[in-house]
Design a protein that fits this description.
Layout lengths: L17 H32 E8 L7 H14 L4 E5 L7 H4 L8 E3 L2 E3 L1 E2 L5 E4 L15 H13 L6 E7 L6 H9 L5 E6 L3 H16 L4 E6 L4 E6 L5 E5 L5 E5 L5 E6 L6 H9 L3 E4 L4 H9 L3 H4 L4 H19 L9
Parallel strand pairs: 1-7, 1-8, 2-6, 2-7, 8-9, 9-14
Antiparallel strand pairs: 3-4, 5-6, 10-13, 11-12
Helix pairs in contact: 2-10, 4-5, 6-7
Bound molecules: adenosine-5'-triphosphate and magnesium ion.
Length: 337
């Protein structure tokens, strides 16, 4: 994707005259200008070809943005939608690992990158595909990073999509700002939070950030909401289990002796509270699910490993709520996916 670095001709090396050097530089500049123009045209076309563009943000790191972004993409794809997933996290891109695409090779045709084919037909593009050594930290100064993001947006051949989900690094820094300025017609932001107070505080910042850049907030997802344990014992038995912090949780088995308890590992309900406080929709919560961690490490997303499981169902509800939100705005009503 990145243009090849402009080569500097040694001056006084006797190889080229100053005139031919100047004309080479001019050629390089013209080539760059041409590429930029093409990129602009392609970005303009993206607005027509991609019905919905959704950014996934959080103020805090590690709350599950990439898990949610990949989950939304897979869940939409399983509903029959044409979906793209763009991982804009330059310093820690991990979407390919989560989708088992680490070995994927990208095709470049006519100067455009063709995304990798992920599970359920999700088209995936990530900075990780372009890094030579995934273990080497990427240290790019601001302007270079932002230039790379602009190229990244304009050089991918997505084709027609119902939705493009964009995963970001944590925080409300340059990346979402650059994307919102470079990519026209962003439909909105999905904010991911965990239920504890510090994460909620950051999610409020993200909501304010979205408002500042004039991108609608589609809603808040509360991740790692509660951990469900199940068991069986005698029918209709009252008992208690030890919850987080040693606090007992009252429990009762049903007529067959089955019981279930939800442990609020990081509290619960904070996402709903903070979204109503900030006047934005609450899209739903995802359970704390150790299978998500395993899936992230093994490259088989929870939705693929257990399509009828609790986590997959929770994602379906969230996707339905997002689609509702997309349908609510009258100027977008013609483009409902
Ligand atoms: N609902 C969940 N239950 C259990 N573990 C989860 C859940 N959601 C995410 N995780 C785990 O938490 C870790 C962080 O998740 P993820 O990488 O999606 O967060 P992130 O917000 O994208 O992080 P970063 O800010 O570094 O980009 C991962 O190991 C992931 O498997
Ligand atoms: Mg991430």
């Amino acid at each position: 994707m990145a243009d090849s670095p402009v080569s500097h001709h040694p001056s006084g090396g006797g190889q080229e005259s100053p005139d031919s050097q100047a004309s080479n530089e001019q050629k390089a500049q013209m080539e760059q200008a041409y590429q930029q123009m093409q990129r602009k045209m392609r970005i303009g076309k993206m607005d027509e070809e991609i019905k919905h563009k959704i950014m996934v943000l959080s103020g805090k790191g590690g709350v599950g943005k990439s898990t949610v972004a990949t989950g939304l993409a897979l869940s939409l794809a399983r509903k029959g939608k044409n979906v793209g997933l763009m991982d804009i996290d330059i310093t820690g891109p991990n979407v390919p690992k989560m989708l088992g695409l680490e070995e994927a090779e990208l095709n470049v045709e006519d100067g455009q990158i063709h995304p990798a084919n992920g599970p359920s037909g999700v088209k995936v593009i990530s900075m990780a595909f372009l890094l030579e050594d995934p273990d080497k930290p990427v240290i790019w100064r601001g302007p270079i990073k932002l230039g790379a993001i602009q190229q990244f947006i304009g050089d991918v051949a997505w084709g027609e999509l119902d939705a493009l989900i964009i995963d970001f690094p944590p925080g409300t820094s340059d990346e979402p700002l650059t994307v919102s300025q470079s990519l026209p017609g962003i439909d909105g932001v999905v904010i991911v939070t965990t239920p504890q107070e510090v994460a909620l505080l950051d999610s409020r910042k993200s909501i304010n950030f979205a408002k500042t850049i004039s991108v609608p907030v589609l809603g808040v997802v509360e991740n790692m909401s509660g951990y469900k344990i199940v068991g069986s014992t005698q029918p209709n038995l009252d008992f208690s289990v030890m919850g987080p912090g040693g606090i007992p949780i009252e429990c009762k088995s049903d007529q067959e002796g089955n019981w279930e308890v939800t442990l609020d590992v990081f509290k619960s309900g904070g996402g709903r509270d903070s979204s109503s406080e900030m006047g934005v929709p609450f899209l739903g919560s995802l359970p704390f699910d150790p299978g998500i961690v395993r899936g992230g490490d093994d490259g088989v997303h929870r939705i693929i490993a257990e399509p009828d499981g609790e986590t997959a169902k929770a994602f379906e509800k969230i996707v339905d709520n997002i689609m509702d939100q997309l349908g609510k705005s009258s100027d977008r009503s013609l483009r409902i996916i």
